[in-house]
Amino acid sequence: MVGLMGGTFNPIHYGHLLMCESIREEFGLRKIVFIPARIPPHKTDREIIDPMDRLRMVELAIVDNPYFELSDIEIRRNGPSYTVDTLKEFRRIYGPEELFFITGADSLVQLHTWREYKQIFSLCKIIVARRPDTDDNLLNEYILKYKNDFGAEIFVSRHKAMDYSSTEIRERVKSGASIRYRTPAVVEAYIYKRGLYRSENVSV
């Protein structure tokens, strides 16, 4: 059983890492593959740095966990990073092995806006991670709808959501505030070494 964790990772932080480690143990996954997006279709902000920097930060953050793996499958693909395309590729790679797509509750309730979203349910099972602001009633409503309408297999993790935020990290870097203990030290060092999240290196 393989977990697939897609995201912008702009930057990756301890919330991502702790959530995935908890989910790996809870569901008995043999590994979790982190998949940084090249061009996230649903991101409307302009503070998305170069994909190779985001890829490198994920690589640094997970290097000491033998159950975590990095994929550049979306970084290498031109154009927007559509989840359905990624899942098709991983289905070819892993054949009949069970695939679990890990997503946040906020993303699940927006899943119907994703490209060819109905196909996602036939390509994998879904594990949902709650966020601090999760509306459980709304989440359960969508889970029931996806199950009844499309036969989706959706599981909600017991992991307690922690209030980490990539947005907050970016804002703290801009203001000169500390980001210590919000992201691994190696990622923090990379951000400062590369001068990331300053106004001159975000997308415009």
Structure explained in plain terms:
With 204 residues, this protein is α/β, with parallel strands linked by helices. It has a single domain (2-163), classed as HUPs (Rossmann fold), CATH 3.40.50. It has 9 helices and 6 strands, in the order βαβαβααβααβαβαα. The protein has helices at residues 14-27, 51-62, 73-76, 83-94, 105-108, 117-123, 136-150, 166-175, 185-194, and strands spanning 2-7, 31-36, 68-70, 99-104, 125-129, 154-156. The protein has a 6-stranded parallel β-sheet with strand order 3-2-1-4-5-6, with helices on both faces. The longest helix is centred in the C-terminal third of the chain and has 15 residues, at 136-150. The protein is globular and about 50 Å long. The model is unreliable at 200-204 (pLDDT under 50).
